[in-house]
Amino acid sequence: MRVAVAGGTGTVGRHVVASARERGHEVVVLTRSNGVDLIGGAGVRAALEGVDAVIDTANTNSMSAGAATAFFRFVTKTLLDAEQAAGVGHHVVLSIVGVDRGSYGYYAGKVAQERAVEAGAVPFTIMRASQFHEFAGQMLKAFSFAGVHLAPRFPSQPVAAREVGERLVTLAEHGAAGRSADFAGPQREDIGDMVVRLARARGLRGRVVPVTLPGPQFAAMRRGETLPGPDAVLGTRTFEAWLRPPDAAAADADDAARP
Q1: Residue of 147, 150, 148 whose CA lies nearest to 139
Q2: Which of 157, 151, 147 is nearest to 229 (CA)?
Q3: How far apart are CA 228 and CA 173, in angstroms?
């Protein structure tokens, strides 16, 4: 099977690429370095020639609802238009568990992405995943100031990005399923506690201070609105196992910050 991966160098995308190649699929990575512009559309149609499925893990760092919505709408339209023209039969997109229950900020953009995919002409599969284990590193990077590390507190059921990538490939190998089952990690965690444990594992100096972040999106997450339901498919790798090298070290390379 010929698979194209949008965001193929990102936190999840790189695992999608690796997993697809390990399974013997031909992989096309949709990046600007390969002459593909997902915003402007240059090179996308040509890159999708002969592609059977597109897996979209493209991301933005913006937490603004307006900016995130614009990004996901542009990228989704670019991909779907090119897929339809090239005869691609399956569009697989990564979303977030509970995104429609706390559709603020960045999450508003993901809701817009889901709706655009559902309204498009290409058969699709939407897979919502919980926050990644790598999210603890993103929080640590974003909320460290003058030697003090803030640890935002809210519940999650985090999953390894590697397992998310593998499952996206599995879904791409099958027919379009619409909304697939949510995908989450094997056990509940507190994000603040994960940040504390990651800081210790890295040997970081300075205080780690648990905090309650303001804003409706974080309030929704504290209420548990981004937790998976009982029908979710669960991964196997725990955060504790992920903390062991080389996984924890790879958190420094994360280029996609998303709550």
Answers
A1: 150
A2: 157
A3: 24
Extract the runs of DSSP E, i.e. beta strands, from the chain.
Answer: 2-6, 26-30, 53-56, 90-96, 124-129, 144-145, 148-152, 155-156, 178-179, 183-184, 189-190, 208-211, 233-234
Strand order in the sheet with 208-211: 144-145, 148-152, 208-211
Return the half-sphere exposure (C-beta side, CA atoms, 13 A cut-off) of residue 65. 10
CB–CB of 42/36 below 8 Å?
Answer: yes
- The model's pTM: 0.90
Q: Tell me the chain's radius of gyration from C-alpha atoms.
A: 18
For residues 166 and 159, give the distance between their C-alpha atoms in angstroms, rounded to a whole number: 12
Q: Which helix (H) or strand (E) holds 202?
A: helix 191-202
Residue type, 20: A
pLDDT tens column, 154-197: 999 999 999 999 999 999 999 899 999 999 999 999 999 999 99
Q: In a 3-state reduction of DSSP, which class is residue 144?
A: strand
